[in-house]
């Protein structure tokens, strides 16, 4: 993909050409020279673009689930969005996160290996402040969590892993389990330093506090399901789920109970006559004996029927459907 220039860079380039500082012929020669792209074998690209797109879609759903969950738990405005999905060496990921942060190390059977959910301390302390009755402001100084604070946050992040399971259910049925919550990245070694990991960065806003939540997924852990992250498999899986949901809905509707009533006819009488009605009185309806009756399903007219008897019991025979805009009474 060619590099895209900003408007200021374009203006500077045109000014240089106009002043003679740059020669258009030299630029053409440079274009003709074969460009060499540097490839760093320590930063091996193990995830294809297609797989990165699938991971993005997966975790956009994860971000929506987290937004709903945190909003309900913290009772405040929460906004979580995916800002990037990158692949980089694990050592580079460790260097990129703060020296003092919240690291939730977890497993997700049947996948083998460990993954990490890193939560910026600002976000963690804002959550704690809300859970303990505060307004959700993060302290200026970040310190180690107390035992009580650690227990509160562990329970919170265990439920976060339930949302992670929900987001991945179309790919694989996971059973995530929180192993340990750590604060120093130097004590966390889940894979070798040069192992490629996918890092999903979630921009998080809780009230007036902002920060990042990073999800680190090693390639070696995801390798058994990498083939399922292709676009073809993703959309095929989505169609299967939609088809299964449709079939289940269809079965439930088939067994639903609906009231059916037959309207013999209508009549208008005075209230005084209604009060004086007694056994044996006759009320004249607006229907002829030979006219079909209307059968209602719920409150909707559905069929034209003919009354009669079958095996000594009252019954009706369906003779036509009630079509919108058509009235057989007329």
TrEMBL record:
GO terms for molecular function: cytoskeletal motor activity. It is found in: Bacterial flagellum basal body; Cell membrane. It holds the Pfam family FliM. GO terms for biological process: bacterial-type flagellum-dependent swarming motility; positive chemotaxis. It comes from the Bacteria. Belongs to the FliM family. The keyword Nucleotidyltransferase does not apply. Its main location: other. GO terms for cellular component: bacterial-type flagellum basal body; plasma membrane. It is a peripheral membrane protein. This is Flagellar motor switch protein FliM. Residues 252-322 form the Flagellar motor switch protein FliN-like C-terminal domain. Keywords: Bacterial flagellum, Cell membrane, Cell projection, Chemotaxis, Cilium, Flagellar rotation, Flagellum, Membrane.
């Amino acid at each position: 993909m060619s590099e895209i220039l900003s408007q200021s860079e374009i203006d500077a380039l045109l000014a240089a050409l106009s002043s003679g500082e740059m020669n258009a012929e030299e630029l053409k020669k440079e274009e003709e020279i074969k460009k060499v792209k540097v490839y760093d074998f320590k930063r091996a690209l193990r995830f294809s673009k297609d797989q990165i797109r699938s991971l993005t879609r997966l975790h956009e759903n994860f971000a929506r689930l987290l937004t709903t969950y945190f909003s309900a738990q913290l009772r405040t405005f929460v906004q979580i969005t995916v800002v990037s999905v990158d692949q980089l060496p694990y050592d580079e990921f460790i260097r990129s996160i703060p020296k003092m942060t919240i690291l939730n190390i977890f497993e997700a059977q049947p996948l083998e290996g460990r993954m990490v959910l890193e939560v910026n301390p600002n976000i963690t302390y804002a959550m704690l402040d809300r859970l303990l009755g505060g307004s959700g402001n993060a302290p200026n100084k970040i310190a180690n969590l107390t035992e009580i604070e650690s227990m509160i946050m562990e329970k919170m992040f265990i439920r976060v892993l339930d949302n992670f399971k929900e987001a991945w259910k179309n790919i694989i049925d996971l059973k995530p389990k929180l192993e340990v919550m750590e604060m120093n990245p130097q004590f966390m070694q889940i894979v070798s330093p040069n192992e490629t990991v996918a890092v999903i960065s979630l921009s998080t806003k809780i009230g007036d506090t902002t920060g990042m939540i990073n999800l680190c997924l090693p390639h070696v852990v995801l390798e058994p399901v990498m083939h399922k992250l292709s676009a073809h498999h993703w959309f095929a899986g989505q169609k299967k789920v939609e088809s299964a949901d449709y079939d289940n809905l269809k079965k439930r509707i088939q067994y639903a109970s609906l009231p059916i009533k037959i309207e013999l006819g209508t009549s208008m009488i005075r209230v005084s006559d209604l009060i004086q009605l007694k056994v044996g009185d006759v009320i004249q309806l607006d229907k002829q004996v030979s006219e079909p009756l209307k059968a209602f399903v719920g409150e909707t007219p559905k069929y034209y029927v003919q009354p009669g008897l079958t095996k000594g019991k009252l019954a009706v025979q369906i003779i036509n459907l009630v079509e919108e805009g058509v009235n057989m009474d007329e």
